[in-house]
Amino acid sequence: MRKERVLAMAKKDFERYNGDLVYRFLHDAVSDVFAQMLKADMQALNEGKHRDISLAAKWCPTIDSAYDKSLLICESIAK
């Protein structure tokens, strides 16, 4: 029953993403910000600039978290 509920939430988000242009814009914008910040953090880490690392990794949703299951945002960030 739990898997069905998670699947229903994902389906609902997918339909909203495809049907609501404002929601799609916001979803994509948030995904882009996380992706850019994580990329910059990786570059700073590789260069040894530890003070330049943001908190993006701390606040970025993790795969299979409740937040990701309801918004499917991790896939967008990974793109």
Which helices and strands appear, and what pairs or packs with what?
Elements: H1 2-19, H2 21-46, H3 56-59, H4 66-71, H5 73-78
Domain DUF2828: 2-79
Pfam family, one: DUF2828
Protein name: DUF2828 domain-containing protein
Q: Please, how many helices?
A: 5
Tell me the helix content.
over 70%
Overall pLDDT: 91
Q: Measure the end-to-end span.
A: 30 Å
* Category from helices, strands and their pairing: mainly alpha
Pfam families: DUF2828
Domain DUF2828: 2-79
Protein name: DUF2828 domain-containing protein
Please provide a written account of the structure.
The chain is an all-alpha fold and 79 residues long. The chain contains five helices and no strands. It has helices at residues 2-19, 21-46, 56-59, 66-71, 73-78. The model has no long low-confidence stretch (mean pLDDT 91).
What is the compact description of this entry?
With 79 residues, the protein is an all-alpha fold. The protein has helices spanning 2-19, 21-46, 56-59, 66-71, 73-78.
Task: List the keywords.
mainly alpha; 79 residues; single chain
